[in-house]
Amino acid sequence: MAEPFIRLRNVEKQYLTRNGIVLAVEKVNFDIYESEFVAIVGPSGCGKTTILKMIAGLIPYTLGEITIAGKLVNRPQINLGIIFQDSVLLDWRDVLDNVLLQIDIRNLDRKEYEPKALELLRDVGLDGFEHKKPYELSGGMKQRVSICRGLVHDPPLLLMDEPFGSLDALTREQISMDIQHLWMEKRKTALLITHSIPEAVLLADRVVVMTPRPGRVAEIIDIDLPRPRRLDRLPEEFNEYTGHIRGIFQDSGVLHLE
C-alpha cells in the first residue's frame, strides 16, 4: 500500500484558558491517502475543526506529529484549498474576481488561471454569473463561488469545514452533489468536517467518528458504496452505515434515540 498523504500520530491540542488547560483533542491517529475523500463527523466541541486547522498549519498542535507528503506540518500550509462554512466573499469583487482572489494573493498569472476559473463556475452551474456581485447571489450560489475559489489554483489537498452548515436543506443537498461531481472529476485529496452523519456517508470513502471532548477517534469506517452516489438511489447499505454511526454516538451518550 502507498504511503499516506496525510498522517496524524498521537496528536493532542491543549488550550490555555482563564480556568486552566482545556484538552480539545487527545491522541488522534489516522491517515488520509492521496485522492481519498475522508469525512470527520462528531458532536459539537469534539475538536473536528481544530483537527482541520492543525492539518492546515493554522494552529499548532501541542503533542504528536502531523505530516503531509512526508513533511512535518510546523507552519501554515500553502499548497491546499479551504472551503469554510461561510462563503467569505469580498463585496466589492464580482464572482470571477472572488474566485481569482487565490491567484492574486499568490501572485500568479491571472490570464493563465481565468479560463480555469470560468470552467469551475460552469461546473457548479454559475455560467453567466461571472460579473455579478455577492449581494446579487443566493446563499447557495455564494458557497459555490467559495468552492471554485478553493480549487482554482489546482491544490492537491482540499479542506472543507462544514461547508453546508449555513444552507437550507435543499441547497445543501445540491451542493453536496456538486462537491461529489468535482471530486470525482479532479480527484483531489479531500477532508470534510461535518455534523451530519448522512452527508459524511454520502460523500466519503472513509468516515472518522469522533468522541465528545476531548475528541478521540472512536472508529474509522470504510464506506463501500458505488459512485456516483445519488440521493434518490441510495442502497440499503447506506442506512446500515448511518445506523452504525448513530449507534456509536448513542453508546457515547451523544444521542438518545429512545
H and E order: EEEHEEEHHHHEHEHEEH
Give a count of the beta strands, DSSP E runs of length 2 or more: 10
Give the strand order of the largest sheet, numbering strands 1, 2, ... along the chain.
6-7-8-3-9-10
Arithmetic mean pLDDT: 93
Number of helices: 8
Task: Describe this structure as you would to a colleague.
The longest helix is centred in the C-terminal third of the chain and has 18 residues. The relative contact order is 0.17. It is globular and about 50 Å long. It has 8 helices and 10 strands. It has a domain of 74 residues. Helix content is 34%, strand content 24%. The strands form 2 sheets. It has a 6-stranded mixed β-sheet, with helices on both faces. It has a 4-stranded antiparallel β-sheet with strand order 2-1-4-5, covered by helices on one side.
Please give the structural blueprint.
Blueprint: E1 6-17, E2 20-32, E3 37-41, H1 48-56, E4 63-68, E5 71-72, E6 81-83, H2 95-99, H3 101-105, H4 110-123, H5 139-151, E7 157-161, H6 169-186, E8 189-194, H7 197-203, E9 206-210, E10 217-222, H8 236-251
Helix pairs in contact: 5-6, 7-8
